[in-house]
Amino acid sequence: MRYCFKFGRGKKVIISGNETFEFLGFKVLKEYHISPEHLFCFEFDNGDVTDSASPLGPINDGMGNVSIETKINDRNIEIGEAITLVYDYSSDWRKKITLAGIE
């Protein structure tokens, strides 16, 4: 399966469901021309949070209850569901990402 995530003003990424949330985070940052130099994680609407990721890889920092290395397929996200990418914790840069479709 392939997942289409939309965010910002018409931006989107399409990735395989076998990819991880870490991969998704790097793809979204790339769309904003951000060179990942800080930690990032994802927050889900139900209150779950992933562990952090960095340019050096995943970090088991105990911040989240979901591994950043979880595959997109394994999370059972539904079309229309939004998740939030949180990047650079000191500046609290946030982008809401919505699952627009599954192919």
Explained architecture:
This protein has one helix at residues 21-31; strands at 2-7, 11-16, 40-44, 52-54, 57-59, 82-87, 93-102. The termini are close together. The chain is built from 1 helix and 7 strands, in the order E-E-H-E-E-E-E-E. The longest helix is centred in the N-terminal third of the chain and has 11 residues, at 21-31. The strands form 2 sheets. It has a 5-stranded antiparallel sheet, with helices on one face. It has 103 residues and is mainly β. The radius of gyration is 12 Å and the shape is globular.
DSSP E strands, number: 7
Q: Structural class per helix/strand content?
A: mainly beta
**Percent range for helical residues?**
10-25%
**Biggest sheet descriptor:** 5 strands, antiparallel
On the 0-100 scale, what is the average pLDDT? 93
Short description:
This protein has one helix at 21-31; strands at 2-7, 11-16, 40-44, 52-54, 57-59, 82-87, 93-102. By secondary structure, it is mainly beta. It is globular.
Can you lay out the helices and strands and say which pair or pack?
Layout: E1 2-7, E2 11-16, H1 21-31, E3 40-44, E4 52-54, E5 57-59, E6 82-87, E7 93-102
